[in-house]
Amino acid sequence: MTQQENTPLLDVRSVTMAFGGIVAVRDLSFTVTKGEILALMGPNGAGKTTTFNLIAGALLPTSGQIFFDGRDITQTKPDARCKAGIARTFQITQPFDELTVVENVMVATMPYHSSMSQMRKDARRYVQMVGLAERADVMAKGLSTGQRKRLELARAMATRPKLLLMDEVTGGVDQKSIPGLLDLVKSLRDEGQTLIIIEHNMRVINELSDRAIFMNRGARMVEGTPHEVAGHPQVVDLYLGEGGGHA
Amino acid sequence: MFQPLTPFKWLGILGAIIVMLLLPMVTQDTYLLHVLILAMVFGIFASAWNFVTGFAGLKTFGHHAFFALGAYGSALIGINLGLSAWLTIWLGGLIAALAGLFIGLPILRIRSMPHVAIVTLGFAEIVRITLSNLTDITRGELGLWGIPVFDGFTVPGLGEVVFSPADKVPYYYLAFALLLLSVGVITALMRSKTGLSLIAMRDGEDAAESLGINLTRQKLQVFVVSSFLVGVAGAFYAHYITILTPAAVAGVDLMILIIAMVLVGGLGTLSGPLVGALVLTILVEFLRDLDTFRMLVYGAIIILSVMFLPKGLVTLGRRWKRPPDAAATEAE
Ligand SMILES: Nc1ncnc2c1ncn2[C@@H]1O[C@H](COP(=O)(O)OP(=O)(O)OP(=O)(O)O)[C@@H](O)[C@H]1O
Ligand SMILES: [Mg+2]
């Protein structure tokens, strides 16, 4: 399938996700083009992670459609979406406790190799990239919160996605590791990786993303450059109104 | 689990195999061999159940249904069609595997493990009740007898091999071959991509799925392989004991015994189910006189082992060598 230059990689069309009475995502539409880095912002409970769950297929929307690479994936299962090129990290990390760090990443490199040793070698590269080389052979349950976040990133990267969804990868990571992670994401960007990042750290957003969508109560409230969004009166109001936030 | 075996482990495995092979040359004691044959049958069952529950994390409590289906399937085909037990034990495995596929398809879509446990247990009860009520075919609780034994054959140089109640040695070697085959299949699968996928699935279903693992296909695959192996074990048992009752092979007592074996030996380890099967089969023989109190004793064993040996007997050695924390993270 040849893809036209102007077809977005991801096209979310009027997606709504309701959990009983709670509408976590409300009539949300946006597109992401190849090579772009989009930031999803918003206060706690705004619906950011739910949006990721919808894109990655962990949740099926109550209504609306999602297109990826020109194909309707609204009903596609998560494993098939992974194969189509969507990878995500989990905000609440989900390490495979009884596997070592490398083996965790090997799960992601499986489709690309026939032998375990090739898978292992490939996985080691990603473990190294996220700065976990020293912990490569310990069981994942022995990792700290920050290390778990990095493992999430290594696993997602190792699927070699066309679209990478990063849910608060810097959350819980110690301050001095953040520049390293930032450099890593920048190098991904320079290689043309398309990304959607959920971040509360404004510095990270400013450095990385071209465009930001600010969500509140499941709906898009403001869209623009990170700078525009952060300075938008509605956004400022929201945080002042709620007694200051962390965005 | 996924690293090449150390020479030390290779030696251990090889040593165990050699001891098992040589044993009947040292003693032909019928009772001892009988206990070991049972331990091997349970060893297959326990390994196969552990494959599904310990490694893949699917909490099924109805695997005795597959044992019964393999046993009755193979026995009935032998009795009614006159086929050789050498053939029908595989057919028994196939019947169990088909049942596994049939029951697995709806069950394995359920994400809630308590529900999986209840539904599989219910399925096994249905199998037991059906077997005891189809008296025209199975003779119900009166027992199915007249089950053909394995045909004898001649080994050039060794003479004739006859399967008879008086000589346990041929059964012993056959059971051992089936055990090696079953454990070999499970080990090979566990050390491959399948094993990696299973443990990933067990430790984090959503994450595994997000990394491209097809949960339904993977679960169905282990379930079918496991029910096949349990079915073959049941079929062998049928042609060895030559009398079957629904209570003995389809009763929940059997499942509880197997669970106890796996928990005592070590859930989610390769050698644990074998160690547990050996230890508990011998223990059960000692406790034979207890009869109706047996279940009470199994219960106590399960509770005690979970309390004091949460990772099973096979992790004991590691516990002594290393601090408990390291031992806990190294269970394989
Ligand atoms: N599976 C679920 N069932 C019911 N309610 C849910 C579910 N998942 C999310 N919600 C609700 O949907 C809303 C949006 O949650 P979501 O996790 O998407 O927020 P978020 O923007 O990621 O917040 P945070 O910054 O805290 O991570 C919340 O009110 C949450 O309680
Ligand atoms: Mg979130």
How would you portray this structure in words?
The complex is a heterodimer of chains A (247) and B (332). Chain A is α/β, with parallel strands linked by helices and 247 residues long. Chain A has a single domain (3-243), classed as Rossmann fold. Chain A contains nine helices and ten strands. Chain A has helices at 48-56, 78-84, 101-109, 116-129, 145-158, 178-190, 202-208, 226-231, 233-241; strands at residues 10-19, 22-32, 37-41, 63-68, 71-72, 86-88, 163-167, 194-198, 211-216, 219-224. The termini of chain A are far apart. In chain B, 72% of the residues lie in helices and 2% in strands. Chain B has a two-stranded antiparallel ribbon with strand order 1-2. Chain B has a domain at 29-251. The N and C termini of chain B lie close together (6 Å). In chain B, helix 3 (64-81) runs antiparallel to helix 4 (85-107), helix 3 runs parallel beside helix 5 and helix 12 (252-265) packs parallel to helix 14 (294-308). Chain B has 332 residues and is an all-alpha fold. The radius of gyration of chain B is 20 Å and the shape is globular. Chain B has 16 helices and two strands. Chain A binds chain B through residues 56-58, 77-79, 82-83, 87-88, 90, 94-99, 103-104, 106-108, 110-111, 116, 119-120, 138-139, 141-142, 155-156, 159, and chain B through 2, 191-193, 196-197, 199-200, 202-204, 206-215, 268, 329-331. The structure holds adenosine-5'-triphosphate and magnesium ion (MG).
